[in-house]
Amino acid sequence: MDVALWVLAGAMVLVGIIGMVLPLLPGTPLLFGGLWLAAFLDGYQKVGVSVVVVLAVLAVLAWVVDYVAAVLGVKRVGASGLAMAGAAAGALVGILGGIVGLIVGPIVGAMAGEMLARRNAGQATRVGIAAGLSFIAAVAFKLGIAAGMLAVFMFAYLV
Known about the structure:
By secondary structure, this protein is mainly α. About 85% of the residues lie in helices and about 0% in strands. The chain has six helices and no strands. The protein has helices at about 1-20, 25-40, 50-75, 80-95, 100-120, 120-159. Helix 2 (about 25-40) runs parallel beside helix 6 (about 120-159). The protein is elongated and about 60 Å long. The two termini are about 25 Å apart.
């Protein structure tokens, strides 16, 4: 049973890291859950409760970045509500196009939403660029936090 739980913890961590890039997977909760399960399986001997609390704080930070970056990025250029909805829809549809679709989807969706709302091509272009840059920045920041979470866990586990 313990081996199956260790495999589950590892799978949760791996899928969590993938989920930091793919919008449909709950990356942050899965990564944190896998690390917490691994700490639990070891009886908190190597990775104590204080380390789990640090991991939880980092997970919350990554989760907040996920939601705040996109909104701030497009709001900064005066995007409409339709542009934000379009960016979200574009991200979901973009999954079908792989990594390129994940970047291009929110851009096209935000631009389409802005065109529907205001019919201004210049503003739609600014919103689309802001949506794309916000997505890339959020993914980079989340991957950095994920690397930090893994480093904290590994340091605690190995030292």
